[in-house]
Amino acid sequence: MKIVTSGSRYIDIDAYAGCISYSYLLNLKGIQSKAVSTAKLNESITKKLLELDIKLNKYKPTEDDEFIIIDVSDKNFFDNIVKENKITEVIDHHTGFEDYWKQRLGNNSKIEFIGSVVTIIFELYEKENLQDKITKDIAYLMMSAILDNTLNFKAKVTNNRDIIAYQKLEKIIEDSENYASKYFLQCQEIIERDLKKALENDTKIGIVSKKLPNVFSQLAVWNKNNILDKKKLIFDTLNNFGNNWILNLICLEEGKSYIIASNDLVLQDIKNLLNGNINQYYLECEDVWLRKEIIKQSETN
Ligand SMILES: [Mn+2]
Q1: What CATH code is carried by the domain that includes residue 179?
Q2: Ligand 1 centroid vs 268 CA: distance in angstroms?
Q3: Is the model's pLDDT at 301 over the cut of 70?
Q4: Last residue of a domain, one of 123, 158, 186
Q5: What are the beta bridge partners of residue 204?
Q6: What is the mean pLDDT of the chain?
Q7: Residues 201 and 173 in one domain
Q8: Residue 166 C-alpha to ligand 1 middle, in angstroms?
Q9: What is the CA(72)–ligand 1 centre distance, in A?
Q10: Residue range 244-265: mean pLDDT, rounded
Q11: Are 255 and 174 contained in the same domain?
Q12: In terms of domains, do 90 and 158 share one?
């Protein structure tokens, strides 16, 4: 049995959709396979997607199990069920371990630095000429994964191949119009239900850069308005982490970052770094900035 699995701590929609869609492809090819994970599922796997008929499989280990790893290639982070000497294939879009796996697995190592791992899997369906066998449910999962990992195609990691795969998947589902807004609004609902927890879960402490405060929080939502309205909750939550902080609120509908800062001094520093217009307590940027891109910008300027 081929066990298709991913990371150990938690998995996102890219890993989840990747395991399920690749296992489905193997079964179509007549290779017995299961999609399995023992990790926590993060918020990008929305309730609606969990309610689809297609799900992860139950798993009882057997002697002949072989493992296929999706969306991770650093062996320190593999799902606990994985037996390392039984890995037969790795499909990932994170860099760092591509030489190791290429040497060990040859063509069964498929590591490419593009927006979403699901894009690589979609292309494998095409290579087998089985793209017409992709069901609506699988298309929903794969589209959500591409949207999430590319931040609605705004993240700089986005590759043209991600866009092409998405456009082909759109043809499989019925209500493809505005699917991006539907998906990201589902994610936003989870964030808004407990904004304090969402902020706490994505706050990095200990950023080392002279131009940035050492507390750096980030949220990605479809529409910023409900979040900006909760100024007091944001300030109360982040003040608990320290006196100087920023929150990068990514608004995907507009394709912009809004940077909220603990005080005017920090806000002015951020304006010097990223440009944009200050409006009351936040900076409105012209583009989407990811946290890692802002940190990089602060180091190079
Ligand atoms: Mn991914």
Answers
A1: 3.90.1640.10
A2: 34
A3: no
A4: 186
A5: 216
A6: 95
A7: no
A8: 15
A9: 8
A10: 96
A11: no
A12: yes
Q: How far is the CA of 93 from the centre of ligand 1 (A)?
A: 6
- The Å distance, Cα 115 to ligand 1 centre, comes to 7
- What confidence category does residue 207 fall into, taking pLDDT thresholds of 50, 70 and 90? confident
Distance 255 CA to ligand 1 centre (A): 20
- Which residues form the domain of 272? 194-300
pLDDT in tens, 148-173: 999 999 988 899 999 999 999 999 99
Cα 192 to ligand 1 centroid, rounded to whole Å: 24
The contacts of residue 144 (CB under 8 Å, 6+ apart) are 13, 17, 44, 46, 49, 183
157 and 213 housed in the same domain: no
Ligand 1 center from residue 146 Cα (angstroms): 8
Distance in Å, CA 1 to ligand 1 centroid? 24
Question: Do 38 and 109 fall into the same domain?
Answer: yes
- Give the Å distance between the CA of 183 and the centre of ligand 1: 17
1, amino acid identity: M
CATH (domain of 201): 3.10.310.20
| Whole-angstrom distance, CA of residue 260 vs CA of residue 258 | 6
Query: Rounded to 10 degrees, what is the CA torsion of 76, 79, 85, 90?
Result: -90
How many angstroms separate the alpha carbon of residue 244 from the centre of ligand 1? 31
Q: How many residues does the chain have?
A: 301
CA of 230 to the centre of ligand 1 (A): 31
Got the DSSP string for 221-245? ES--HHHHTTHHHHHHHHHTT-SSE
The span from the CA of 119 to the CA of 142, in Å, is 8
**167-198 b/e with 16+ CB inside 10 Å = b?**
ebbeebbeebeebbbbbbbbbbeebeeebeeb
